[in-house]
Amino acid sequence: MTIRDRTAIVGVGTSRFSKAPTDTPMRLAAQAFKSALADGGVGRDEVDGLVINIGWPLGVDYDRFAEALGLRIRFADQSWTHGRFVGPTLQHAAMAVATGLARCVACVCGVSFIQERGLLGGPGDFEGTREEGGTHEENPVYGLTAPAAGAALSAQRYFALYGATSAELGAVPIAFRKHAALNPAAIMRSPLTLEDHQASRFVVEPLHLFDCCLVSDGAAVVLVTSAERARDGARTPVFIAGMQGMRAGPDEFLFATPGLGIGQQREFRYTPTEEQLSVYRMAGVTQKDVDALYTYDAFSPLVWFVLERFGFCGLGEAAAWTQKGRIELHGELPMNTSGGLLSEAHVSGWNSIAEIVRQLRGECGERQVRGARVMQWATAWGDSTIFHS
Amino acid sequence: MTAYGKPLPRITPDNRPFWDATRRHELALQRCAECRRFRYPPAPVCPECLSERVEWVAVSGRGTVSTFVVFHHRYFPSFAADLPYNVVQVQLDEGPRLTANLVNVPNAEITIGMRVEVVFDDVTPEVSLPRFRRATT
């Protein structure tokens, strides 16, 4: 049994993105939801599934959203409140549709990182006090706190193992800033130079300010339905061609390629096998067919890790590989063409899913990837979904 | 003496022997009584063989810096006076990695691969934190 091409995204909607608190997450999510319905030509009462990854206290919960929008839901699902679950949440939506548990699932993210920024490290981050360490290696006893710290631990070891530098890492946020400059919805649109990147303050060394994503408010909604229903929709359907799930276990640290050796992560030299990258087989494509790659760029090193994890380059090669515009719009592999979490907005990755859909429909104007047919979502923690128009 | 204002470890039934040992200025880890594998953090079963038979064993306290960071952003008011402060991960010679601070080494001199040894900091009458210093031998 395969899920290939059995489901599709039929509508997307986004709210205004902001670095200042303007509206509640519920108001932003309601706007994005109505805009997704209009975009897809979908009636409110067709939506019978609801999936969410960022709930209280950062974002909107499924129960309140269904109540507030008058939705009669027969498939609801909400994960641990972490952005990393964007991919698995979208996959749950597709699986619910493919198995007949729902006809049309709304993936809803309405989030305010601004009003709850105390959760992102320091005394208000109760999650970081988990016995024997937080999920990004937080250990408040020693002052180790905030997701940035996990990415910094990995970057430092990566630099030492492979001779990579912070200046090479600068190519990542610089590329995404160029994309944001072409995106009217992006928050950060002024040019970013290597000098700006290197002169910006350290947050958690070796990560500079511009290696860290925006702290912003916004909402995005993605509507998933059956391929048959999507073909009757208002827009070009964007089919879900292949999926693979998020990884966990002794070989893994969330913010590293397998085997880097952070925390208790086992240390070994990772080379991906076909089995580890089964998303390509399910989708019937290879890396060479991917017209653009999208990833969860909460911190710039994650972009290097995903390129190595999915075999776009070899282990230790991503620093050199990402230079000279290779991941920019007209490069060999455009990445995060909306500006991503680093420069568009932090809607926990859903803004990038919306961008994939708009790109595959050819709606992206100045930042359109010409002739795009196949696009991939993939993360440093190993989940991936491949889409085609 | 001013009160210690920084976060303290959450002591649980699983990790209490670790913190009891640090009060005696000993570093002790769990070792599986079946397959002899050291493990950290403390856990009720061996991740290798799933055995629940375990012994607490004093270890050398010696190891190698496997990675480190330097905090410049003030997240905790209680760490403000320490900025910029380091946090290291140390791979113990017995295998597991501990997170801690490296003391008496300027941040600019910390390198991955540096040999270190444990020291104990009696931060309260009940809690002694393991930290590390440059290895003396």
Give the tags.
heterodimer, A: 389 residues, alpha/beta, Peroxisomal Thiolase, Chain A, domain 1, two-stranded antiparallel sheet, globular, B: 137 residues, mainly beta, OB fold (Dihydrolipoamide Acetyltransferase, E2P), 2 domains, six-stranded mixed beta sheet, three-stranded antiparallel beta sheet
Describe, in plain words, how this protein is organized in 3D.
The complex is a heterodimer of chains A (389) and B (137). Helices cover 29% and strands 16% of the residues of chain A. Chain A is built from 13 helices and 11 strands. In chain A, strands 3-2-4-7-1-8-11-10-9 form a 9-stranded mixed beta sheet, with helices on both faces. Chain A is an alpha/beta fold and 389 residues long. Chain A has one domain: Thiolase/Chalcone synthase (Peroxisomal Thiolase, Chain A, domain 1). The longest helix of chain A is centred in the N-terminal third of the chain and has 16 residues, at 25-40. Chain A is globular, with a radius of gyration of 19 Å. Chain B has 137 residues and is mainly beta. Chain B folds into 2 domains: 11-59, no CATH class; 61-137, OB fold (Dihydrolipoamide Acetyltransferase, E2P), CATH 2.40.50. Chain B has one helix at residues 16-23; strands at residues 28-32, 38-39, 54-58, 62-71, 85-92, 97-100, 102-103, 115-122, 128-134. A 6-stranded mixed beta sheet of chain B has the order 6-5-4-8-9-7. Chain B has a 3-stranded antiparallel beta sheet with strand order 2-1-3. In chain B, a hairpin with a 4-residue loop joins strand 5 (85-92) and strand 6. The N and C termini of chain B lie far apart (34 Å). Strand 5 (202-205) of chain A pairs antiparallel with strand 4 (62-71) of chain B, so a sheet runs across the interface.
Secondary structure: elements and pairs:
The complex is a heterodimer of chains A (389) and B (137).
Chain A: E1 7-14, H1 25-40, E2 49-52, H2 62-68, E3 75-78, H3 86-98, E4 104-112, H4 147-162, H5 166-169, H6 171-181, H7 194-199, E5 202-205, E6 207-208, E7 217-226, H8 227-231, E8 238-244, H9 278-283, E9 292-294, H10 301-309, H11 318-321, H12 340-343, H13 350-360, E10 374-378, E11 384-388
Parallel strand pairs in A: 2-3, 2-4, 9-10
Antiparallel strand pairs in A: 1-7, 1-8, 4-7, 5-6, 8-11, 10-11
Chain B: H1 16-23, E1 28-32, E2 38-39, E3 54-58, E4 62-71, E5 85-92, E6 97-100, E7 102-103, E8 115-122, E9 128-134
Parallel strand pairs in B: 7-9
Antiparallel strand pairs in B: 1-2, 1-3, 4-5, 4-8, 5-6, 8-9
